[in-house]
């Protein structure tokens, strides 16, 4: 079960199922992202609180406790107001897309890049900036669209993992059947 072809197969099948759920019910997917963020925030609060009491000086104790309280508050806010949290996460993705898009556009004009490399950097940068623009203009639709894109990506990733598993199985059985070379 844990061999490489089996792991690829199960991971691929799970990705396909998650992708289908994400495309079919994008609202539930956005809600799941919010809950996952809340769980992460609570875990971060716990680890930061533990770090606070592991320190032997007052300065780090106060800092770690402050971080723990902020993480705890973020988790509570995420669960109490999931709509606002989904909006904030969408705007965060938009800011990330905008900053990476501009960076890729700048990288397109660096010295030493080939024409193909420049075109690739420029194209991906422009797509990232366009995505950021759309998410900033309509973050409500953006959250659902992100869930759909995540779902489609998961389906494609899952199908490719299943095919990779099948190919790996074929390769391992073909190697097992090969005749030994005579001297």
Describe this structure in words.
The chain is an all-alpha fold. It is built from six helices and no strands. It has helices at 4-24, 26-54, 58-80, 82-108, 115-137, 139-177. Helix 5 (115-137) crosses helix 6 (139-177). The mean pLDDT is 85.
Features:
single chain; 183 residues; mainly alpha; 6 helices; 89% helix; extended
What is the overall shape? extended
Task: List the helices and strands in order.
Answer: HHHHHH
Please count the helical segments. Answer: 6
> Low-confidence stretches at least 5 residues in length (pLDDT < 50)?
none
Main sheet summary: none
Portion of residues in beta strands equals under 5%
Overall SS class: mainly alpha
Helix content: over 70%
Cα-based radius of gyration, to the nearest Å: 23 Å
Mean pLDDT: 85
Give the termini separation: 38 Å
Instruction: Let me know the number of strands.
Output: 0
In short:
With 183 residues, this protein is mainly α. The chain has helices at 4-24, 26-54, 58-80, 82-108, 115-137, 139-177. The longest helix is centred in the C-terminal third of the chain and has 39 residues, at 139-177.
Outline the secondary-structure elements:
Blueprint (H helix, E strand, L loop, with lengths): L3 H21 L1 H29 L3 H23 L1 H27 L6 H23 L1 H39 L6
């Amino acid at each position: 079960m844990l061999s490489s072809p089996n792991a690829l197969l199960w991971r691929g099948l799970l990705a396909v199922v998650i992708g289908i759920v994400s495309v079919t019910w994008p609202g539930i997917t956005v809600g799941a992202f919010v809950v996952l963020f809340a769980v992460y925030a609570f875990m971060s609060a716990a680890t930061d609180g533990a770090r606070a009491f592991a320190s032997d000086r007052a300065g780090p104790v106060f800092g770690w406790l402050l971080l723990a309280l902020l993480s705890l508050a973020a988790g509570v806010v995420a669960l109490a107001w999931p709509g606002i949290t989904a909006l904030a996460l969408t705007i965060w993705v938009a800011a990330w897309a905008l900053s990476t898009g501009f960076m890729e556009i700048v990288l397109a004009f660096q010295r030493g890049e080939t024409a193909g490399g420049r075109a690739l950097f420029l194209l991906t940068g422009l797509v990232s900036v366009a995505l950021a623009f759309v998410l900033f203009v309509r973050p409500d639709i953006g959250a659902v669209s992100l869930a759909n894109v995540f779902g489609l990506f998961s389906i494609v990733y899952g199908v490719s993992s299943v095919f990779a598993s099948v190919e790996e199985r074929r390769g391992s059985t073909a190697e097992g059947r090969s005749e030994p070379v005579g001297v």
